[in-house]
Fold this sequence. Notes:
The first copy, chain A, is built from 13 helices and nine strands. Chain A has helices at about 5, 50-55, 65-75, 115-125, 140-145, 180-190, 205-210, 215-230, 240-270, 275-290, 295-310, 330-350, 380-394; strands at about 35, 75-80, 130-135, 150, 170-175, 200-205, 315-320, 355-360, 370-375. At the A-B interface, helix 9 and helix 11 of A face helix 9 and helix 11 of B.
Amino acid sequence: MMPPQMTDPLNAFIPHDEVLLPGAPEGALRGLRFAAKDIFDVAGHVTGCGNPDWLATHLPASATASAVERLLAAGADLIGKTITDELAYSLNGQNFHYGTPVNVNAPGRIPCGSSSGSASAVAGGAADFALGSDTGGSVRVPAAVCGIYGIRTSHGRVAIDGVMPLAASFDTVGWFARDPRLLARVGAVLMEEDTARLVGGAARLSDAFALAAPPVQAALEPLAARVEGLLGRRPAMQVGGLEDWMITFRKLQAREIWTQHGAWVEQVRPRFGPEIAARFEWARAVAGQPVGPEIQRRTAFGGLMAGMLREAGVLLLPTAPEIAPWRGLQGAAAQSFRDRTLSLTCIASLARLPQVNLPAEATVNGCPVGLSLIGPRGSDRALLGLAAQLAQLS
Amino acid sequence: MMPPQMTDPLNAFIPHDEVLLPGAPEGALRGLRFAAKDIFDVAGHVTGCGNPDWLATHLPASATASAVERLLAAGADLIGKTITDELAYSLNGQNFHYGTPVNVNAPGRIPCGSSSGSASAVAGGAADFALGSDTGGSVRVPAAVCGIYGIRTSHGRVAIDGVMPLAASFDTVGWFARDPRLLARVGAVLMEEDTARLVGGAARLSDAFALAAPPVQAALEPLAARVEGLLGRRPAMQVGGLEDWMITFRKLQAREIWTQHGAWVEQVRPRFGPEIAARFEWARAVAGQPVGPEIQRRTAFGGLMAGMLREAGVLLLPTAPEIAPWRGLQGAAAQSFRDRTLSLTCIASLARLPQVNLPAEATVNGCPVGLSLIGPRGSDRALLGLAAQLAQLS
């Protein structure tokens, strides 16, 4: 293959393998080019998961992930696999081994992650759409800070076979596109009919908005008003205790991650970047503690959110609290960005809900910001239809 | 809870936990009682996976498997979790720790597995239907030898979140029922519309029939003829090299199992029954060998089977080569039963195809035998409809 710098100025694609598969000659996505995060299996290729020791200790997949197969069967061409944060356990998109994909819409800033390469490739025009995965925000956050559309689907909605598990009770398939109609067309290939309807209006989550920086709140205002204009404005609501829910999420996620990957980490002792190494150390520690009330809390939270959605219809919130941080992000600033972001993203993750990021027209310091729609579990296609409809109204 | 022997004469349910959840007040499955193999998560309960050390080293699930949730939302009541072979890595249904569920239709004989308790509960009338999983035959084989209907779904078709992975590229959700119309009604809840159609007639796989004992072949003849009468008889076909395909399957499966569970096995050193212990030792050894041509062979096999299905329509084969073995099965007899059975079941497993077991009216030594229909990937609901139609014709 050609040296990556010749063909991949975005540094969006994995450097060690070229994965190209032509789509079927006919189909709803004929002629479109897509990329897949390098945690999706393609038969005959080792799925690298963002870590060279993972790559070295795993065999080629013998089957292709169903999501990839469906897109190929619909005529789309797979043009490559994209860089992911190591084992998808980060929101930053700074891969210690393979570098940081370029965020073309926020020069000098990170693309966020963990579906960093997929977001970068779509934002930069190297792909028409791209598959990612979202456990705690890994599609939603890069979509927001890269200024593109993205969906995290209802948990259990899109077949997740052939996708590396991170924390299986939270893991979902998602995807990015620049055009919301294409986002919806991909949804029509990957998902059958909705099992829940969007009924009602739109209500803002006021405590989620309060977590966003004031300029972000201001930039999202016209788009939020447009959604309310279309659906009807309902009184604002509060989730309440977002920081506690975030901690509940992080603990449950860490336990599942250690159950999934801890033994491999102990056995292989892979070389991780410092941030990821610290995160696995933390997961190990959490897994060693007695179980707290998190499991019961999660069940209660699902009921709370289902009730709010029945009352409101669609819930609105900022996708991320800030624009993309600078590429040198580390230390306390990284921790603060992560905590505030997870306080927003944990809502849909804990309650297994679909969430779509809409890029705002307004920017902050020239950088993208995104508004999110959350709908009931199983309303994914209606949410995608709504995103397309809103774009036409603008 | 009451002592198990008081409430569970079939020994179908796990003894260490009582998992009861009422279904929604309305729905397509209202009033029906179902059970779930103890590899399906239910929030707040530890999923035991058939091994006490697994039970002791895992936390309660924080989310319920989507498949279970869908059934509850359709009004069915979950009445318990059923015994599985350890980590689902067997076809026998003889759990070293929890005993062997009763096969009411073949007294003194094993129910086969690994979805042994689910098959036992349905055959014995303790549940109307039950969830299982099928990696290499774990729904199909117990359905056949217990004399009930069962489906292994197209790989990637039914959401598998919250289900313990065994060998993820082969793992599927399946279920059992005594009534084929109920089998289809459950399918209408768990699966959206088919993505492939059943077109053509029915062709027997002659080399698969040749693997079955002659009395089994004879007992299946009237049912096979009835299928051919309905769909139109096509010339018999041969897969060719079934024993080699079986070895390809076993090696790929063993590698995936060791990747999935090897580190846990090394770390915890769980107490396994002798057969399961030997199987994990073998998986460890296979995983340490250089990769052979299995990955390419699997891809080629998928193309081969897709071509045969295009030509034939539906393929017919014996689900298992023998009636249920006696409960004392072990050693060379167990190995022989396993090898011959896997030579039949590996077809749908390697090619990710749906397969439905139809119990024959005829028996062998008074014990059930089953005929299987294999259809194209994504034709699951049509296959279930066909099974229901055939039962009405009898």
